[in-house]
Design the sequence.
């Protein structure tokens, strides 16, 4: 289906809008773009072609904010937004002055569910839900892999260290506590994700191998040899997106605000979410419309 | 790049068991380091084939016989881990020091090393120095011609330095039988 932009004369008669501050938007300023919290806030009358153009941007760099009824777009697309407004509304909004990428800040993120990574522009990202069930956090795959896979991030395979959510340098005690933590998260009686049984067995296998010093030494040697291979020689490429082994936690992270979300640049610490009822375990059962949470 | 996967190789086992190559490597107990320098292309082996081609056939047989147990490395002026079980042919000089330095990452408890070569290496002193750092024995198989034993002498020095031994498999013709003499599956 194709949509054509109405003529400027038609729009002037039909549209009456107000900006964020309650000021009426006249025909001359029916499209308004400002910079709010490091993102472009784009307020325009509805236009299917314009919406389609905005939606052609990667999902991580644009989102519709229902509260302000505006599009939030990453500032790097300021030039494109200006062109599209000209194309769809015949209006030149002029140069949009944007400051450089906001400087990173440290935050404690209450992540109640973390999804699988999906392609977004030139990288893969996973989105995270906060305690108010809002998709507030963005985790690039490289950041998750750096935390869970450590030195092995060169491969696109989840290592056994990643399966237990521990670092390559983990001590015997850290291996044991990593196992307990993951077994609790993925026990099929609690975790309702479709692959919980399979993941639980994988966690057991990972623990059995890594808790044996000789087998661990061989596995580390295997990782080092595997690292020497070119990517196309590694067999088990993850086609369907990386999944972090933990689905929730209080995460101390460095990042920056972008289009109303917090984009994590570096994970500093990852702690379980606990209460007097136990440790929070999150899962998204097949067919469910939202995650389920269990205190265990 | 040769994309064939030899049955019983680490890649084949990884694929079969839906594991990573690193996980399948945990069950390996023999590293075969194969010289694929230019002289290995000499077509003086069994049935007029090259030493390299015969070495590939013999290695394929052994990997099928001992599935998941043998890891293959190839070297010349370069060195490469070959989980598919086919040693990459480089056809250049014999930088054995580089090969041993690379293979050192797999010098872990319970591992055996067999080095297959047909010629004199580039830097004997450096090689011996690296070999002495190995905790496991290095066995060597000389696959050059019996009548030119120069390379064999060096391989003997190398294996002696690690407590291993050297055997000759003239022009790679009896390579698999020779490897089986040395290899003790765990």
Sequence:
């Amino acid at each position: 289906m194709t949509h054509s932009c109405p003529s400027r004369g038609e729009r002037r008669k039909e549209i009456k809008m107000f900006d964020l501050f309650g000021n009426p938007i006249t025909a001359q300023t029916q499209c308004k773009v400002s910079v709010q919290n490091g993102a472009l806030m784009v307020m325009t009358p509805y236009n299917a072609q314009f919406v389609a153009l905005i939606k052609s941007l990667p999902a991580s760099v644009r989102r519709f904010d229902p509260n302000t009824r505006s599009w939030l777009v990453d500032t790097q697309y300021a030039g494109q937004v200006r062109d599209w407004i000209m194309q769809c509304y015949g209006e030149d909004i002029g140069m949009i002055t944007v400051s450089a990428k906001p400087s990173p800040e440290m935050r404690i993120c209450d992540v109640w569910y973390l999804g699988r990574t999906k392609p977004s522009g030139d990288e893969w990202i996973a989105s995270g839900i906060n305690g108010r069930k809002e998709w507030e956090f963005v985790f690039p795959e490289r950041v998750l892999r750096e935390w869970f896979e450590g030195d092995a991030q060169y491969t696109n395979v989840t290592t056994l260290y990643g399966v237990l959510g521990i670092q390559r340098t983990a001590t015997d005690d850290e291996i044991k506590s990593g196992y307990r933590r993951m077994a609790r998260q993925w026990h099929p009686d609690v975790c309702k994700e479709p692959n919980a049984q399979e993941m639980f067995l994988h966690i057991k296998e990972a623990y059995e191998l890594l808790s044996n010093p000789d087998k661990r030494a061989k596995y580390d040697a295997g990782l080092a040899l595997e690292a020497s291979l070119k990517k196309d020689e590694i067999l088990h490429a993850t086609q369907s997106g990386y999944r972090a082994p933990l689905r929730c936690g209080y995460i101390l992270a460095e990042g920056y605000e972008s289009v109303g979300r917090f984009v994590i640049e570096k994970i500093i610490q990852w702690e379980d979410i606990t209460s007097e009822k136990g440790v929070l375990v999150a899962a998204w059962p097949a067919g469910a419309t939202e995650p389920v949470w269990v205190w265990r | 790049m040769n994309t064939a996967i030899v049955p019983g190789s680490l890649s084949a086992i990884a694929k079969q068991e839906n594991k990573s190559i690193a996980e399948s490597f945990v069950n390996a107990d023999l590293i075969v380091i194969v010289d694929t320098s230019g002289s290995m292309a000499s077509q003086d082996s069994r049935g007029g084939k090259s030493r390299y081609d015969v070495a590939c056939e013999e290695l394929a047989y052994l990997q099928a016989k001992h599935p998941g147990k043998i890891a293959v490395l190839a070297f010349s002026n370069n060195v490469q881990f070959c989980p598919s079980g086919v040693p990459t042919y480089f056809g250049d000089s014999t930088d054995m020091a580089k090969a041993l330095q690379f293979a050192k990452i797999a010098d872990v408890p319970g591992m055996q090393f067999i080095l297959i070569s047909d010629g004199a290496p580039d830097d004997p002193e450096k090689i011996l120095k690296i070999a002495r750092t190995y905790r496991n024995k290095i066995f060597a198989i000389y696959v050059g011609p019996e009548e030119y034993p120069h390379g064999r002498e060096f391989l003997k020095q190398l294996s002696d330095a690690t407590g291993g031994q050297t055997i000759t498999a003239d022009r790679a013709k009896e390579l698999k039988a020779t490897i089986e003499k040395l290899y003790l599956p765990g």
Remarks:
- Confidence is low (pLDDT under 50) at residues 1-15 of chain A.
- Chain A is about 30% helix and 25% strand.
